[in-house]
Amino acid sequence: MTTINKADIDNARCLSILGKQTFLESHGMSAPEKDVSNYVDSKFTKQVFKAELNNADNIFHIIYYNKTPVGYSKIILNSSQENIQIKGITKLERLYILKEYHHLKLGLELLNFNLDLSQKNQQTGIWLYVWIENHKAINFYKKAGFKIIDKYNFKISETHSNPNHQMLLIYN
Fold it and tell me: Rounded to two decimals, what is the model's pTM?
């Protein structure tokens, strides 16, 4: 049984744990180990999540499987982007599921939840960045109707950036 709950400040520790593990599972080999380790240690702390949760623009949700937190998402409504000339568009900043639960299609459930939420908030579409080597994620988003529209360099450290696709889905 799955449930999806909106995260609040009390979930900062849970998000920190999920964030670290899921980032390492999906991006751990994307850069030198020291760079990835430093990135995770600085970006996925309880304090960072508390600050993000205190920002009303950030909307986090946690997906639970049999009452166990197994993934999370973060969206930002009305998140304009310089090369998307559409108003009222959502950024899907994070959507991560623990690797051991991928076979349950919980990522699709969480994605659909966020797409519905975005549409209920009168958004016209949703966009995201995805690492170009994460073929599983790229195919996942393509199956959901996203199209690659541009490139972006995601900075892991002062000396390493990962090339990303920018993907966009416009609602009909």
Answer: 0.95
